[in-house]
Amino acid sequence: MLEGAVTLGKVYLVGAGPGDPGLLTLRAKALLEHADVVLYDALVSPEILQFIHPAAECLYAGKRAGMHSLSQTEIIALLLVKAQTAGVIVRLKGGDPFLFGRGGEELVALQAAGVPVEVVPGITAGMAAPAYLGVPLTHRGLSSSVAFVTGHEAVGEYQPRVDWAALARSVDTLVVYMGLQQLPQIVETLLQAGKDPATPILLIRWGTTPRQEHLQSTLAVILPLAQSQGFSAPAIIIIGPVVGLLRG
Q: Catalytic: 178?
């Protein structure tokens, strides 16, 4: 255990932000510098990992499509074990732990086991990535409503819970996480629900990092364009008139 660490284990669910280390909160940085154990996800940038105390135990728990180092059940079990043997345990998650980060599941499990928990919010990629391109999610006259949704459950073994048809009719700006693989189904559903084919759409990968790249188009032509350019995950999808504010 690091010098000065508390004797009773406590887990901190910490948001690492979208990638740019400059967007990490001061609270998150301080915890990384004093942690005994850090359990981190795949999308945490290497620059942020440099803040971890050299003596801390670093455990990788990344989950990417088809490549899971640990299952969610195993991650929770590991947190419970570490809480009995270490003082400061940081569960480091990309973006914000409570926005499609499964932090809620971990919080409930830890609380049920009587483990002290503190949540440290992080900036989510769905806000930061478009902002780095100068695209606001809301804009007077263009968008007065925003929905953050997951595209991960649109196809395959996941049962779709997102009512895309309702969103197409009621929300000005859609921010879709983990939806690139399901983009054909998402676009088709939105168009069938009456979304204008000329609606602007923006794909952003590796947002806020030096590798950031984007693809801007419309619902009508985004699919062949994304395929021809080999645009791949991890990416955020922004759909709505605010995308039209992007120039160049």
A: yes
